[in-house]
Design brief:
By secondary structure, the protein is of the alpha+beta class. The protein has 2 helices and 12 strands; from the N terminus they run H-H-E-E-E-E-E-E-E-E-E-E-E-E. It has helices at residues 2-8, 22-53; strands at residues 54-58, 73-77, 91-94, 104-110, 115-119, 122-125, 128-129, 143-147, 152-156, 174-175, 179-188, 194-195. Strands 1, 2, 3, 4, 9, 10, 11 and 12 form an 8-stranded antiparallel β-sheet that branches. A 4-stranded antiparallel β-sheet has the order 7-6-5-8, with no helix packed on it. It is elongated.
Length: 197
């Protein structure tokens, strides 16, 4: 019998044999390297996007109610103001002058050169009454006519009677260089998802 001859000649046949081809090992090595490169590139893209293009921001407090709610997650476009200046009614995130560590989120009310005033609960810009359908009720205190300096913004929260903003000397006018970016959309919670004007 053939089996008998192999055993007699000292060639015991193993039950199973697995051969690893050198080319197969090389291919696996190349695939692993490609996966590593893909992960590194993805991480680099995330870091670049986070640092220079988009960044998450958590709304803290009720100063922007009813437009934004406490605890909502907002995506901030950090690149937009490299191409054009802020515009009226945009919602911006900024570093308060002289205060490091916590960013603020408010609405742009005045641009450089504008004269801003509040009389009898009504906002006036350059002497013209401004309609604001997005605020949480009329303001209960006046603000004297004040000119916005060059390269600065006048900002206010939509919850006008519970907002620390440009009307307060604690915040004052916001230098353009202190802008982090424009609030682009509410991302979380999903039920509150919306694109911001």
């Amino acid at each position: 019998m053939a089996d008998g001859r192999k055993k007699a000649a000292g060639f015991d046949e193993p039950e199973s044999m697995t051969a690893v081809h050198p080319r197969s090992q090389e291919r696996q090595g190349r695939e692993a390297l490609q996966w590593l490169e893909a992960v590194v590139i993805a991480l680099a893209v995330v870091i670049v996007v986070r640092m220079f293009i988009f960044s998450p921001f958590v709304v803290s407090g009720s100063s922007m109610y009813p437009t934004l709610q406490d605890g909502e997650r907002v995506i901030v476009n950090k690149l937009v103001y490299r191409f054009h200046p802020p515009a009226y009614d945009q919602i911006v995130v900024f570093v308060p002058p002289g205060q490091a560590g916590e960013d603020y989120i408010k609405r742009v009310i005045g641009l450089p050169g504008d004269i801003i005033a509040v009389r009898n609960g009504v906002l006036y810009r350059n002497g013209k009454r401004i309609e604001e359908p997005f605020i949480n009720g009329p303001m209960t205190s006046d603000f004297p006519a004040t000119r916005v300096p060059a390269d600065h913004l006048f900002v206010m929260g939509d919850n006008r009677n519970d907002s620390l903003d440009s009307r307060s000397p604690t915040v004052g006018m916001v230098p353009m260089e202190n802008l982090v970016g424009e609030a682009a959309l509410v991302l979380w919670p999903p039920s509150d998802f919306k694109v911001l004007p």
